[in-house]
Design goal:
By secondary structure, this protein is an alpha/beta fold. It is 38% helix and 15% strand. The protein folds into three domains: 153 residues, P-loop containing nucleotide triphosphate hydrolases (Rossmann fold), CATH 3.40.50.300; 145 residues, 3-Layer(aba) Sandwich (Rossmann fold); 165 residues, no CATH class. The chain has an eight-stranded mixed β-sheet with strand order 4-3-5-2-6-7-1-8, with helices on both faces. A six-stranded parallel β-sheet has the order 9-16-13-10-12-11, with helices on both faces. A two-stranded antiparallel ribbon has the order 14-15. Helix 7 links the parallel strand 6 and strand 7. The longest helix is centred in the C-terminal third of the chain and has 23 residues. It is an enzyme of class 3 (hydrolase). It comes from Theobroma cacao. One of its GO terms (biological process) is positive regulation of auxin mediated signaling pathway.
């Protein structure tokens, strides 16, 4: 299927041919002026690149990252730490403060959370823009923004700001974005929502900023009861249950096993599903009139979706994390288990158990244990730092520059350098192309890309190659609109999910290189069709009985797709 959709010309990490034509200055990256993806240290650059040799300044010295954000340092920020378990109302209280402020910004870890907050504020007659890596929806008169944390603007002033799930500043891959927002957002009030495990580290990081820090603790609003017995037979599955497992294969096996009994239909949620599809699956599960009354999900339910779950059932307490099979951590278990029993829902009291009785001791001990105290926050070098560092090593490519910078970076004991394996994989490919350093850096931080996914990595490589060759990338050069179909197998489903990621990447790049990636509307349309087709597959899979309550009927789906195809194939 993918071979029909992505053009046949394949480009691999070892087989990218060098293209000799320069793409010129007209497509210069506008990273700082348009999206402020990373903090500017322009003042420092001017100071150390005029009148002094850059070689006299150690650009690998990252011991004082709070000094990178002069706007925030001009303010005497009042920082409120809202800490507590899932379903404790901590984010609700912060959002009420944001809603009543003259201006503000919400920074969340997921697009779904930014969507939810934007929708909430606009419904409350507080105009709010939505800005994520893949969309920008501006509302007339808006002085509020809901953004994914990577898109936080550290050059603007706000009356109020929220950083949600602040404990993620300890995440090995994305933690640096939360650190940047924590140190860099210039707001009179900064509200941080998350796990109490982050309190001590945040207090330590903010000792040098002069901010006033207050801690407000919350208790869970509804009880969460760990059961003493496992699920036992699948005949004990009931309405409102959520079965949690950690692979796509196991998710569909469990869905089939539950539905084969003819009593329940299952919605599914996992990370590689498009966000729109996850939202629709959650909507079906939450709808009391829907026949999809059981949820089978991965740990993607841990944040970002409002779910009316009665009981969480762990199929296993082990997961493969990309390098090894390991036990779930205490924070992971508590985050997932805490989704049971949503306050104000049909199931105000939550329960949690396991399929296997042998897993119950770890479940019970984890729920009783505090999360391990965070000791370090993530950092990653901004483009400004990499650019200045590259001047000392003009013959090296981005891969060597990044690798050497990270090996030599100097950090205080409160910080670590983020894991940048994915960026290095991209750099190894991009260095083969005649792109300027800022262009290479942009492709390396392109957030939707998983370089272990063959289709996604191929899409990125072809986009980069075409950009290097012509400075202009039309979507039709590697993708054939009108050929998407409902997948018939699990492998075809996986390919369609990967194609969705390629389309997301095109949209992501179109917001940063607008003149060079002009087909954003077409990519967005095809991305929406992908989501509808995946949704249709999920509805057909394991279907046991007819129903009139399907979220999207086949006739409606075919009509939607036909209309989109006619519109985009006629221009």
């Amino acid at each position: 299927m993918a071979s029909l959709l992505l053009r046949q010309r394949r480009v691999s990490a070892l087989g990218v041919s060098r293209i000799l034509q320069d793409n010129g200055d007209s497509f210069r990256l506008r990273l700082e002026s348009k999206f402020e993806t990373f903090a500017s240290i322009g003042v420092m650059i001017r100071k150390y690149s005029s009148g002094k040799s850059a070689a006299k300044f150690d650009f690998t010295d990252l011991t004082c990252p709070h000094t990178w954000y002069p706007n925030a340092r001009k303010k005497n920020r009042k920082v409120f730490l809202h800490v507590g378990p899932t379903n404790s109302g901590k984010t609700y209280h912060a959002l009420k403060r944001l809603e009543s402020s003259p201006s503000g910004i919400y920074c969340g870890p997921l697009r779904l959370l930014a969507w939810e907050v934007s929708k909430r504020l606009n419904k409350a007659k507080v105009p709010c823009d939505l800005i994520t890596g893949q969309e920008k929806e501006e509302v007339d008169g808006a002085k509020h923004k809901a953004v994914t944390v990577e898109m936080a603007d550290v050059t603007a002033d706000y009356d109020c700001a929220i950083i949600d799930e602040i404990q993620m500043l300890g995440c090995k891959t994305r933690g640096f974005s939360f650190t940047r927002a924590l140190l860099g957002i210039a707001a009179d009030e900064l509200h941080l929502c998350g796990d109490a495990a982050a309190v001590a580290l945040i207090q330590e990081l903010l000792k040098v900023t002069g901010d006033d820090v207050q801690v407000e603790s919350y208790e869970r609003l509804s009880p969460l009861v760990p059961l003493e017995v496992p699920l036992g037979s699948f005949s004990n599955i009931r309405t409102g249950d959520c079965i949690v497992t950690f692979s796509r294969k196991e998710i569909y096996q469990l869905k089939k096993r539950i539905e084969s009994r003819g009593k329940h239909l299952c919605s599914v949620v996992y990370g590689s599903l498009p966000p729109e599809t996850r939202t629709r699956q959650a909507t079906m599960f939450n709808d009391t009139s829907s026949e999809f009354d059981v949820l089978v999900a991965s740990d993607a339910i841990g944040m970002g979706l409002n779910l009316n779950i009665s009981r969480v059932i762990f199929s296993t307490l082990k997961k493969f994390d990309g390098s090894e099979m390991r036990d779930l951590t205490v924070p992971e278990i508590k985050q997932i288990a805490g989704r049971a029993g949503r306050y104000g829902s049909k199931f105000p009291m939550g329960e949690v158990t396991c399929l296997d009785a042998d897993d119950l001791p770890l479940l019970h001990s984890s729920l009783k244990s505090p999360s391990p105290i965070l000791e370090q926050a993530g950092l990653f070098p901004s483009f400004d730092l990499i650019f200045m560092y590259s001047r000392l090593q003009p013959k090296r490519g981005l891969y060597q520059i990044l690798e050497h910078f990270i090996e030599n970076a100097k950090l205080s004991e409160n910080y670590f350098i983020a894991n940048c394996e994915e960026q290095l994989k991209v750099a190894a490919i991009i260095d083969e192309l005649p792109l300027r350093l800022q262009d290479k850096y942009l492709f390396c931080i392109s957030s939707p890309v998983d370089m272990n996914d063959e289709i996604s990595s191929q899409g990125l490589t072809q986009f980069a190659e075409n950009y290097a060759k012509k400075g202009l990338v039309h979507l039709r050069e590697i993708f054939t609109p009108g050929t998407l179909q409902v997948p018939k197998t699990h492998s075809a489903l996986k390919e369609l999910e990967s194609i969705h990621k390629v389309l997301e990447l095109y949209v992501w790049l179109s917001f940063r290189l607008e003149d060079s990636f002009p087909d954003r509307e077409l990519a967005s349309s095809q991305k929406a069709i992908c989501s509808l087709l995946i949704e249709e597959f999920l509805e057909r899979l394991g279907w046991q009985k007819p129903t009139s309550r399907r979220l999207t009927s086949s006739a409606t789906l075919n009509s939607l797709i036909a209309n989109k195809r006619r519109h985009y194939l006629c221009d």
